[in-house]
Amino acid sequence: MSVNYGSKRIVVGAHYGLRDWLSQRLTAVIMAIFTIVVLAQVLLSKGPIGYDKWSGIFASQPMKMLTFAVILCLLWHVWVGMRDVYMDYIKPVALRLSLQVFTIVWLVACSGWAVQVLWRL
Fold this sequence. Notes:
Layout: H1 17-43, H2 51-57, H3 61-89, H4 93-118
Helix pairs in contact: 1-3, 3-4
């Protein structure tokens, strides 16, 4: 015979920890690899490094897509970090929600700007 001592208690947010930790590490690794690839292209190129060299590195469509994927990783990395900082240190709910909405709007605007910059080359 089973005894029920009340409803099961669900702690909100407790299941996010591992997923957020892994997403931060994965996005950091992707950004580090991308940085090494771009630095290798710059350091191994001959001649002066100017606009033409930078434009050449990012001119191909695959490089634009890869760069945009890294920008999305950066945006996700920032969102997870800022959200955790807000949840840990900003106690008034209205202020925390306002900061989170501002951060989302800012990150969406940055992604739009990144698309504009990448595909203008």
